[in-house]
Amino acid sequence: MSQTNFSPWDDPNGKPLIRFDNVTKKFGEFVAIDDLTLDIYEREFFALLGPSGCGKTTMMRMLAGFEDPTSGKMELAGKNIAGIPPNKRAVNMMFQSYALFPHLTVWDNIAFGLRRGGASKQQIEKRVEEMLTLTRMTKFARRKPHQISGGQRQRVALARSLAKAPKLLLLDEPLGALDKKLRQDTQFELMDIQESTGTTFVIVTHDQEEAMTVASRVAVMDEGRIIQVATPDRIYEAPNSVYVADFIGDVNIIEGTVKPAGEDLYYIDWNPNQAPLLAASERPFSDGQTAHLAIRPEKITISAEQPVEAKNTAKGSVLDIAYLGNLSTYYVQLDGGQVVKAQTANTRRLSRRSITWEDKVWISWSATAGVLLDR
Amino acid sequence: MRRASWFNITSLTLGFAFLYLPMVLLVFYSFNSSKLVTVWAGFSTKWYGELIRNEAFLDAAVVTLKVAVISSTLATILGTMAAYVLVRGGKFMGRTLFSGMVYAPLVMPEVITGLSLLLLFIGIGLDRGVLTIVLAHTTFSMCYVSVVVSSRLVTFDRSLEEAALDLGCSPFDAFRLVTLPIIAPAVISGWLLAFTLSLDDLVIASFTTGPSSTTLPIKIWSAVRLGVSPEINALSTIMIGVVTVGVIAASLISKHRTVKAQHDLQAAERGTS
Amino acid sequence: MNIRRFILIAVPYAWLLALFFIPFFIVFKISLSDLALAIPPYSPTVKDGIFNMLSAFDFENFTFLASDDLYWKAYLSSLKIALISTIFAVIVGYPMAYGMARAPDEWRPTLMMLVILPFWTSFLIRVYAWVGILSNEGLLNQLLLWLGLIDAPLTIMNTTTAVYIGIVYTYLPFMILPIYAALDRLDESLIEAAEDLGCSRTKAFWLVTVPLSRNGIIAGCFLVFIPALGEFVIPSLLGGSGTLMIGKVLFEEFFNNRDWPVASAVAVVLLLILIVPITLFQRNQQRQAEADT
């Protein structure tokens, strides 16, 4: 994944490449970006993740220069970039539709931006060849966009946007048009290219798996605001809200009332028919406060007998089993009605597994397995 | 798979017979040696000879072509500009009036367009002739061009222009280097449409023409009011022939392009799996 | 606002203002001027005449139009002819569009081209082609006499029937294309579903195909009706002196009687009549566009 020592956002003296300072963008009455503040650092692979309409594309279009912020300041390398037209910015963009010029060959598409820059013929030729090699498209240089496949078009679009060696490359759903298998291969290719060119990448995506795979940091957005910015593992393991926990991956949310149970430990009363749950939390909660316990299905153990050592246990019956090949998800209905998902890796063959529909089972998890959230 | 039923075949056959039989008969009787067009008296090309020797027709044809070339070129430039303004112009003062003026001539009866332009030309004291016909034809055919071009611009992927800007183009360069080459087929068909409209127009030309500049439709009109004449049949045959060859050639070229594009795409998909 | 954008907007705008809007305004204004001030063309003071007409103001021409039943009859007969021709165009055009939409895929480009080809052919010539067919000694009468279906030639030329034929013939592609577009988009599984649910073929056609192609029919009707209303060439060439149509009356009023104010008034009233179908047509197009998205 990302380089182990690369974390400029933790360095208090680090200078960000991009700085959003209380940026708001309105389209008429509609608030697309709501008072947003964010730093993105050089060489980062930064992902903007969120459902459609959350404002992530607007943020990207503001960086590219197609939209101007309604209020607030946007800085690129310390300079305010509001009002600078897109053709005068050291920022390039890879479009969701790729936007390859259909009347130009692959070669001319890549050279397009260089020619506008006034580079000499030799320089252009050298740079285009470099880009073709980087994206393994040398063989197809003389073809037109409609004569190459979807994956190749994606690579040409990348080569074209990288050709001018921008300080910042924006990628709008770059892999959205590819099928799943090709998408996975291309994700790693993107990461390699990002690392070898040292360009700062900002990627917009609604695919959480993609964001988690490629990004050094992920910003989860909703309704024009950033809900959480963190590294992929922090986003997954320590979401700061039910929204983030629910948006990334699969999760069980149990709502209840908190009762302190020692240092950083809390009981959660959630169901009169079940014992209170125990959860560790660094975030303080007051007595009687309503809280949500978020637990990932794979952190819940399912067993036929009552486990002895587990801190949290609950009894129920198997409602449904979703067999996914490598994993199985059990939908367990607890006494009291709530359905909890528990996931186990299928390390054994199907016939040897013991739990099936209607079985009475126990589920259990440790005190640190879940995250206690106040919203 | 669709199968053609007898009902459908019959209705298509009758329908196309209705559309084409009159023109086929016209062509057929242009080779009639008799002066009486409805009585067949043997094959002859003498009416074509008469036509070529008729200087009045030739002069009219020259005037018509001149008007058509100039007015369709002007109409294409103005119509493309208007289409771009309508689709990409954003908001400006009087936009509603502008779009109204672009679309109104399409439904305006020709007699009214002709009448109003004539009154204007008289009002400003402009002598009627080739210039006034060109102005009139440019005005109504630019609206057709703008409809053709704007329907192409509406489906035009805007991110292509944005990509050009992103890669350092000024807005004008983005239009010149990216938009125009891509919408060129629509611009060309707009020109062809304007050209044929101008060639074909009788009513507006009758209003705006002067005594020295008679166009071919006006000439034909005054001839056919007196009844069927074999010379006009011959002239019609030539005009129909030119159009037919042109349209068939154009559709063959576009079909060839589509087939080639499909072929290329299949080859590309195969080559990379 | 930058200078390029200004030029881009200003040039076509100014052109249309000068050569569409102002002339139209002149017609409107002259229609309100006095007949006595009208000066025949080619007189040296013609320019002043126009300005005189522009400054005068009365409704005399409109009251004249209302009182002379020639104009009433011409408007009514134009409406009637346009309406009947439109109905015939649906009857002829719908089966053709339906046949095209049901034709095998490989035929369709050719059929499409055959419908569009007449568009590019001279309108005047296409109308003229009927003169030789419909006249008393024309090809149609010859054929019917030869077949023994009639004893004496039918008089079709210079009647309203000839005008109907001419309008249906010249505007048929306008009817076929929108209906074809609507039928082409129609999902064939809908008809199969109707048959599956117990409809006969004919019933499925009336209950599913026709309602779903309604917008195409409406669009086609307007595209035939609107130009037919102001038509000049067809009634003049095929309709003879007996056929009254307003486009023809306007033309004659202007060129033969040289009565500009009345011609202008005729034009203004024609436009007022046209506003209704044009507005309805635009509403239909808008509804269709909304339904598509």
TrEMBL record, chain A:
Keywords: ATP-binding, Cell inner membrane, Cell membrane, Membrane, Nucleotide-binding, Translocase, Transport
A single cellular component GO annotation: ATP-binding cassette (ABC) transporter complex
Keyword rRNA-binding: no
A GO MF label: ABC-type polyamine transporter activity
Domain ABC transporter positions: 18-248
Any coiled-coil regions, as ranges: none
Protein's name according to its UniProt entry: ABC transporter domain-containing protein
Organism per entry: marine sediment metagenome
UniProtKB/TrEMBL annotation, chain B:
Presence of keyword Ribonucleoprotein: no
PROSITE patterns for the chain: ABC_TM1
Record-level GO cellular component terms: plasma membrane
Predominant cellular place of this UniProt entry's protein: membrane
Signal peptide start and end residues: none
Keyword Transcription: no
InterPro entries: Bact_Polyamine_Transport, MetI-like, MetI-like_sf
Domain ABC transmembrane type-1: 61-253
Compartment(s) where it occurs, according to its Swiss-Prot or TrEMBL record: Cell membrane
Keyword list, A-Z: Cell membrane, Membrane, Transmembrane, Transmembrane helix, Transport
Example of a GO biological process term: transmembrane transport
Membrane-spanning segments: 12-31, 67-87, 99-124, 130-154, 174-194, 232-253
Record Pfam families: BPD_transp_1
Membrane topology annotation: Multi-pass membrane protein
Xref: Gene3D superfamilies: MetI-like
Family that this chain belongs to: Belongs to the binding-protein-dependent transport system permease family. CysTW subfamily.
Protein name: ABC transmembrane type-1 domain-containing protein
Origin organism lineage: unclassified sequences, metagenomes, ecological metagenomes
